[in-house]
């Protein structure tokens, strides 16, 4: 299997390095071969090639079976013109490779729950999967114009765009607890009314799945007051951006959350939910768990290597259970990025 | 002073009744006269007049100095065509009376903090004011179209629309702790770039105010992880809808949160943040605190009766300190809506 590795900016390099050594250990143990091709994206690519998504990077991704991404962005590029901003690399990757389904699992880990801002009885046992539409809506709609006097963004959705993400959510719900909360703002938005209609149509094909429509403002409350009530959360792009970051706080550490951005043929891009954290970059203190768990999602969703994925997850959670933590999770003798990864590797032997 | 009372639907009648008797008590004590004119809005108006905002209601509001609103909406009207939905009454009131500034204070009350889903040390001492633009953006942009195959919403903002809400936020910040967090999604949206530019321009006029730009997804995290860090949160319409509902959970009771929707000349509409709660309507169990505190905001923002407003707030918080609660806050001998209001009235004598 060929994997393009896009470390990106900030701590992206350290955490993808960790994920790569873990994948190599898995390859060795289970007799697979992974080829890794490292390429530039984001701010690093702007600096080197004046383009947040250079052609060589696109070519490498096209020749690969999956992409492993670190993180992109940073204050250095924030005042660039839009086309030369680091995040453009990410947005263009999503669009160009048609990665319409963004999966963000949020799962409480009992050993870490004390770091949650929520009370323990509310945060414990949370296990939800956010399914976010990633290539449509206001992120990509035209016109998107701005001058000194006025600005406009456009939020379009076609039936086809909605149907494929709704299908994906039902597929995923069938493998989980068969409950979907579909998020919209149907009392205000036209796109939400089409969204709700299509969800209702698909529901007829999956009679076992319980579907609830809930307004986005109400979901923003319930995610905090009763996060255990959610199984699959299905949402359009902008709402998904906000709600998935909101939900990420439940577990007590952003350094723990992986994500997958996939299309229908198995190709996908895998990346931690956290950002580039430039203030700690290069210091060997970043938590690589989210990147390593993203690699496990790659094995699950792109390579259908379920046993191998489970081995990685068990090694990560087991390392926490053994009492090994990076500095974001403990003040008490934290391990460095490499040292913590070493513990995971030991568990994988 | 003339006040149009729009009870609306569900528990709207009970809670506005409570607010009206409290206002009458204040009028008596301080020697004011308030005239109350009761009119229909929302689902009740759809049922009676086939129009969520009847002409008589508009005429009454035009002849008044302020509007006191209960709540609108309910499942009964959710499948109506858009123009006949209960919420249309509210959206049209906002637009027609140009109520562009929605103020939602979120203040932790020490006697109630144990009901918060957040840990006590995170929730206590929270005191923020959300300033939400209320008459622009994707709520009112055209085209807003939907057919079986595609849908589109439009998010426009003009310089004028942004300037007036930004001005309002700076004015409010000057009376508080002089810190503004301006919310946007400037890495994706054109409207956010204009928003950010105008905030920076205004900042030059208020050198004392500390301004931070923060992306909406990041704010959705910080509101839960470090709510005490916020003083004034300044946001456009859609983001404000989501973030203000999210923030409302911090205090432990939605039944406590008031809001004001104002324009520049002092005219305003005052309403609790909570909804119509049809399942408990008419049972004398709803918590009227949010409606009563909304009446206090009316005294502050529309009538400039600051002492009277403070008297209401003290009476409400004092009633909690005395250990009197409605059923949403205690299971232990809760008071009914009227009985709890009676305790507030006793404190106002
Ligand atoms: C970097 C940014 C464009 C991106 C988004 O808004 O989608 C990020 O917040 C995310 O959620 O992956
Ligand atoms: C009822 C609805 C249209 C309204 C809104 O979205 O503005 C409500 O959620 C609010 O926040 O006042």
UniProtKB/TrEMBL annotation, chains A, B:
Entry's localization field: Cytoplasm
Annotated EC: 1.1.1.85
Start and end residues of each Isopropylmalate dehydrogenase-like domain: 2-344
Positions marked as site (Important for catalysis): 139, 185
Xref: SUPFAM superfamilies: Isocitrate/Isopropylmalate dehydrogenase-like
Cofactor note: Binds 1 Mg(2+) or Mn(2+) ion per subunit.
Keywords: Amino-acid biosynthesis, Branched-chain amino acid biosynthesis, Cytoplasm, Leucine biosynthesis, Magnesium, Manganese, Metal-binding, NAD, Oxidoreductase
Reactions that this protein is recorded to catalyse: (2R,3S)-3-isopropylmalate + NAD(+) = 4-methyl-2-oxopentanoate + CO2 + NADH
Cofactor: Mg(2+); Mn(2+)
Record-listed Mg(2+) binding positions: 217, 241, 245
Pfam families linked to this entry: Iso_dh
Keyword ATP-binding: no
Protein purpose: Catalyzes the oxidation of 3-carboxy-2-hydroxy-4-methylpentanoate (3-isopropylmalate) to 3-carboxy-4-methyl-2-oxopentanoate. The product decarboxylates to 4-methyl-2 oxopentanoate.
UniProt subunit comment: Homodimer.
NCBIfam families: leuB
Protein name according to UniProt: 3-isopropylmalate dehydrogenase
Species classification: Bacteria, Bacillati, Bacillota, Bacilli, Bacillales
